[in-house]
Amino acid sequence: MLLEIKNLAGGYGRGDIVKGITCQADAGEILCVLGPNGCGKTTLFRLLFGMLSPTAGEVYMDGRAGKELSSKKRARLAAYIPQNHTAVFSYTVLELVVMGRASHFSAMEAPRKEDREQALLALEKLGITHLAEKTYSSLSGGQRQLVLIARAVCQSAKILIMDEPAANLDYANRQLLMDVASELAGKGYCIVMSTHSPENPFSVGHKVLMMKEGRLAAFGVPGEVINPASLEEVYGIPMDVVSVRDRCGKERTICLPVKAAGAGMGGRSL
């Protein structure tokens, strides 16, 4: 098993935000982490990467306990893809992707020919070789996200952890991102991806972790654990899960908030 999370808890010194999470994902699988804002998804990812120390439980990567891994060893196993990223300097796309090789040479070394070749291979895998010499800051949001994924691939990690990668993308780029995630899983990567959309686990996920207030609300196969009852428990509103067929005849699952005719905000405030 590439990634195992066992009874994990932790936070920022004012009490635990993540409280007893247990789940796992293996090579070729996409684990979608689902839940509302503030439920602990980003804190969970920081615990996975050792940015925060757990107060209980453990993370195992490729059979090795997180507490036994140096930051460099951890970086060779797992790569983090943030929701958004702003480069401080005017790096080219190729220069930014080469940075993914940092765990493969010392702080006093410059990137080698091999590192540049690996960066070009990563760009090729993502189909964005044509962007290599462009300035990263000049790219669209969708292109930037693909570059960040290429940097993670260049890192040669087996586990790719994406923190709400589609949050700031338009609809077409969101779909492109889901397709890329599926392709990478097909090549043997273990993908862990947080999302606000309950449809994503149905379209690309092999497993789903549903979180509420830092705790595990449900874990398992999307079709078994995502249902009206679990969605209402997590999001606090009534929802239906509906299957439809698209114009190509493929069955799709969508999740819809339920609103009675004439119902208003019911006292809710934004």
Percent range of helical residues:
25-40%
| Low-pLDDT sequence parts | none
Major beta sheet summary: 6 strands, mixed
Query: Residue-averaged pLDDT, rounded?
Result: 89
Broad shape: globular
Distance linking N and C termini: 42 Å
Strand order of the largest sheet: 6-7-8-3-9-10
Number of strands: 12
Order of helices and strands: EEEHEEHEHHHEHEHEEHHEE
Strand content: 25-35%
Gyration radius (Cα, Å) is 19 Å
Structural class: alpha/beta
User: How many DSSP helices?
Assistant: 9
What does this structure look like?
- This protein is of the alpha/beta class and 270 residues long.
- The protein has nine helices and twelve strands.
- Strands 6-7-8-3-9-10 form a six-stranded mixed β-sheet, with helices on both faces. A four-stranded antiparallel β-sheet has the order 2-1-4-5, with helices on one face.
- The N and C termini lie far apart (42 Å).
List its salient traits.
four-stranded antiparallel sheet, alpha/beta, 270 residues, 9 helices, six-stranded mixed sheet
Secondary-structure map with pairings?
Elements: E1 3-11, E2 16-25, E3 30-34, H1 41-48, E4 56-61, E5 64-65, H2 71-77, E6 78-81, H3 93-98, H4 113-125, H5 141-154, E7 159-162, H6 171-186, E8 190-195, H7 200-204, E9 207-212, E10 215-220, H8 222-225, H9 228-235, E11 239-245, E12 251-257
Give me a quick take on this structure.
It contains 9 helices and 12 strands. It is α/β, with parallel strands linked by helices.
